[in-house]
Amino acid sequence: MTAQSLADGPAGQALLALERDQDARDWLAAMVAEPVRAHPDEVSLFEGAPAVAFTLAATRMADTQDVLDGHVRWITRARLKAAHHRLAAGALADTREFDLISGLTGLGAYLLRRGGNHELLRDVLRYLVRLTHPHRGGLPGWWARSGPTGPGPGWHGGHGNPGMAHGIAGPLALLALTMLRGIVVSGQAAAIDRIGTWLDHWRCGTPPRVWWPEAITRAEHDRGEAFRPGPGRPSWCYGTPGITRALHLAGRALDDPARQHLAEEILALCVTDEAQLAQLADVSLCHGWAGLLHTAWRASHHSDRIATALPRLLHGLTDRLARRPPAGQGLLTGTAGALLAQHAARTNTPPATRWDACLLLNDEGTR
After folding, report:
1. Fewest C-beta atoms under 10 Å: which of 21, 220, 221, 317?
2. DSSP per-residue letters across 104-152
3. Is the dihedral of CA 304, 177, 69, 291 positive or negative?
4. How do residues 251-307 score in pLDDT, each as one tens digit?
5. Which three-class secondary structure string do you get for 277-290?
6. To 5 degrees, how large is the angle CA 241–CA 18–CA 296?
7. Rounded distance, CA 234 to CA 293, Å?
8. DSSP for 238-272?
9. What is the pLDDT of residue 271?
10. Does residue 194 surpass a pLDDT of 60?
11. Which domains does the chain have, with CATH numbers?
């Protein structure tokens, strides 16, 4: 854990206190007790200056926020320059270049949260549009050159990642959310459609009981299919909830009722499938009950079937939080994230701090 981590540092407890209208000063002070890190190669939405900036955006610390926004703009431009250089060279990407947790999608999510520099945000969107153009040989533009956890014998030729946290569902969600808010660049609709079509191809099962591999190998890509025997853990980070949320936003952005409805049906079945729920081993936002509940709560505003499942999901989170609370206190895998999701579902009110913007789940201001 580091003090400037949005994932597992004091930021989660600060956001929880602010959401409850409590004093967050001690948690905020802990975040900035040391100089804020801002090297482009070392920071992201969830680490360093952008993480501190995201947390302080929920406060009224305007002077500090302006300084941090300047850091984030500089970091984003540096990351964009490196990404375009890599694209021009025709090399494969690392997921940390583009993903939500470590990459430019996360920085774009911050710029969208702040709402004050749409031209830089459009530069991020232009990069993501470019990312969706295929490589020579038919690999998608977001194909990663190594495995999900780095090089390994099973990942010769890299991988394709469908997930929200480290895969292409994160860029899809950002492209869709910005379009829904009227922030559009050339080729954006086509990019959304390309990603959606790719995710449609790689889903397993028969709608609405479908699921996705956590990662697709080069051999599977060349064969054109990836078989997984059944749904995996229904998590926000890699599983069906996060992916279907991105597809749901895509359907709305493209004014495609069929895609939107199918995503709702897939998620509705997922959140009521006891076999899938039984695979949740903890209460975390990242890969546990809180992430499933909050994803479903956001989507429930568009689906009565999902809305009827919320009491069961809230009970599941509350019961497990009481019996086996997380060891950590942070946002992604600790107590803070679980309590924030519980609070939103109990009050049925959009978070005042907009803390779920870092998960690309919030859709206030969209049409």
Report:
1. 21
2. HHHHHHHHHHH-S-HHHHHHHHHHHHHHTSPPTTS--TT-BSSBTTB--
3. positive
4. 999 999 999 999 999 999 999 999 999 999 999 999 999 999 999 999 999 999 999
5. HCCCCCCCCCCCHH
6. 15
7. 10
8. SSHHHHHHHHHHHHHHTT-HHHHHHHHHHHHHHTT
9. 97
10. yes
11. 10-359 (1.50.10.20)
Binding-site residue set: 237, 286-287
CB 312 within 8 A of CB 329: no
pLDDT tens digits, 52-80 = 999 999 998 877 889 999 999 999 999 99
> Which residue in the block uniquely carries the two structure tokens 């009110």?
349
Q: Are strands 159-160 and 216-217 parallel, antiparallel or unpaired?
A: antiparallel
Q: Which residue has the tokens 């999900």?
A: 148
What 8-state DSSP symbol labels residue 36?
Answer: P
| Residues pairing with 44 in the sheet | 47
The strand pair at 204-206 and 159-160 is best described as: unpaired
The beta strand positions in 1-96, using DSSP E, are: none
pLDDT tier at 160, thresholds 50, 70, 90: very high
Binding-site residues for Zn(2+), in ranges, read 237, 286-287
pLDDT averaged over every residue in the chain: 96
Token pair of 220, please?
């599977």
CA dist 343 and 346 (Å) reads: 5
Nearest to 49 by CA among 65, 25, 27: 65
pLDDT tops 80 at residue 151:
no
User: Where is average pLDDT lowest: 42-51, 54-63, 208-217, 354-363?
Assistant: 54-63
Q: How far is residue 275 from each of residues 91, 213, 235, 270, measured CA to CA in Å?
A: 41, 17, 13, 9
d(CA 237, CA 289): 12
Using an 8 Å Cβ cutoff, are 334 and 326 in contact? Answer: yes
Could you tell me which residues come within 8 angstroms of residue 203 by beta carbon, excluding any fewer than 6 positions away? 210, 211, 212
The closest alpha carbon to 355, from 113, 93, 100, belongs to 113
